[in-house]
Amino acid sequence: MKRFILLAAGLLAASSVLAGPRVELVTNLGTLQVELNEKAAPASVANFLRYVDDGSYNNSIFHRLIPGFVVQGGGFGVDQTALPSYEPVINESGNGLSNLTGTIAMARTQDPDSATRQFYINLSDNFSLDGGRKAGYTVFGKVVDGEQVLQRMAQVPTGMNIKLRARDVPEEDIILQQVRRLDNDGAAH
Q1: Is 38 strand, coil or helix?
Q2: Which residue segment(s) compose the domain that 135 sits in?
Q3: 101, 125, 179, 187: which has the fewest Cβ within 10 Å?
Q4: In sequence order, which residues have a C-beta less than 8 Å from that of residue 157 and are 6 or more positions away?
């Protein structure tokens, strides 16, 4: 029995060592925590953390919501103006991670290497977004706490937004109030 407890404690310690950086996303609908996978998507994680660290995700909005598909944000301020971006990051969609429910991935244009600051969270398993013969969309982490917040987001009515010239825009703002790194104990820094 003693040996089993030691083995279990060792496995817990090993899993916390292998865990990637965690980020807290505080929204007006609740708080999410995501764990990032630096091993599978080093460029995408570094890119995302650059925006976290410079504070430019703070007071941005989730501007696209398709229930049963994705919620997308990080690219527009609360006034619905586009936020400045750093240079695009290379596509890492062939990293073995899949667009499963609760994973976070980089949004991009038709150019596979065009992802900058916008990201999305999968609200269902979206295998059609994975890479294959063509480049897919890079998954770089997963939601580890706050799944109920995603369910609240999915309930927000959407429609056409003239300013953004887009469909599927939440009719009530879903605001990313603050985005910050967490230390290993879950405390913000």
Answers
A1: coil
A2: 20-182
A3: 187
A4: 170, 171, 172
pLDDT digits (tens, 9 = 90+) for 93-115: 999 999 999 999 999 999 999 99
Alpha carbons 28 and 58: distance in angstroms, whole number: 12
Domain CATH for 148: 2.40.100.10
Measured between its terminal Cα atoms, the distance across the chain in Å is 39
Assigned token pair, 171: 């009719």
Residue 102 backbone class (left: φ over 0; alpha: ψ -120 to 50; beta: rest): left
Total domains present in the chain: 1
Three-state DSSP state, 66: strand
- Does residue 13 fall inside a structural domain? no
In a domain, 11, yes or no: no
Total-model pTM: 0.88
Q: Cα 137 to the chain's mean position, in Å?
A: 12
* Local structure of 15: helix, strand or coil: helix
Task: Give the number of other CB atoms < 10 A from CB of residue 18.
Answer: 8
